[in-house]
Design a protein that fits this description.
With 99 residues, the protein is an alpha+beta fold. It has 2 helices and 5 strands; from the N terminus they run αβββββα.
């Protein structure tokens, strides 16, 4: 099941609100969607831009859709995720995350 457009819009606003305007050149919060999972990423510019222009991306949280509920998960290392909490509103769950 695809992530509804309304959730995508709210996610975009949530991500933008995490980073003050004066920090946007050095830090971003973004999301990716793969199936029913949304991964929240903290992005940073390259330390040595002359070696490559790609920003790094560190996962800080993941939301997994489970029917009409969402499971918030946190990174547990080595690509693993640890369940945290569940709820009906994914944005309310993300408010628990410090990104």
């Amino acid at each position: 099941m695809a992530v509804p457009e309304e959730i995508r819009t709210r996610l975009s606003h949530w991500c933008a609100a995490r980073v003050p305007a004066e920090e946007r050149d050095t830090r971003q919060v973004a999301y990716t969607i793969h199936g029913d999972a949304i991964t929240i990423l903290e992005r940073r510019p390259p330390a040595y831009p002359e070696l490559g222009a790609a920003w790094s991306a560190t996962p800080v949280a993941r939301l997994v859709r489970q029917g009409d509920r969402w499971q918030l998960e946190r990174p547990a290392g080595r690509g693993e995720w640890q369940p945290d909490s569940t709820g009906a509103d994914p944005i309310e769950l993300l408010d628990q995350v410090r990104a």
